[in-house]
Amino acid sequence: MTRRATMSEAALQQHIVKLLNAFARPDIAWWHVPNGELRNHKVGAKLKLAGLRPGASDLSLVIDGRFHAVELKTEIGTLSPSQLSFREDVERAGGFFHVAFGLDQAIGVLKGLSAFRPNVSITTAVDGGGARSRPWDAKAPEAGKPDHSSPVRPRRAADPVSPST
Fold first, then answer.
1. How far is the CA of 121 from the CAs of 19, 24, 50, 60, 84, in angstroms?
2. How far apart are the C-alpha atoms of 95 and 157, rounded to whole Å?
3. Quick check: helix, strand or coil at residue 101?
4. I need a surface site. Which of 39, 76, 105, 139 has the fewest CB within 10 A?
5. Quick check: is 21 in a domain?
6. What pLDDT was estimated at residue 22?
């Protein structure tokens, strides 16, 4: 059986941007750098000279004086080598890099970062793991209750990140 994503990465990003536009804390800064999309060779070369970087995260946020890079992936997505390199550079510089697989995890990451106003309650079908909780630290599910923990597993720094590893 082939696994399928519930929505494309573009649709996922659009949903998250709508949530941030509506419910983000007013004291944070967030943005998206449009690295994707097809461009002609001349425009691509000009943007590269201006500092466009392959693998840059989908969303960049500054929350409480800390830089967070958030990469949005479908439930079956994986990080490319250039995204892994960007992650290493962000972490080496003291920033935080987060990967969210699907809408539930993306909302969970942003909740964990306290990106939303405190009086806002955003619920999802399954609560995403969030940025502060780690699935391998979670308690075992109670008997008779489904386990909705994150599919992300602990990894070594050199391991590629995907929901299946």
1. 11, 12, 40, 22, 32
2. 15
3. strand
4. 139
5. yes
6. 95
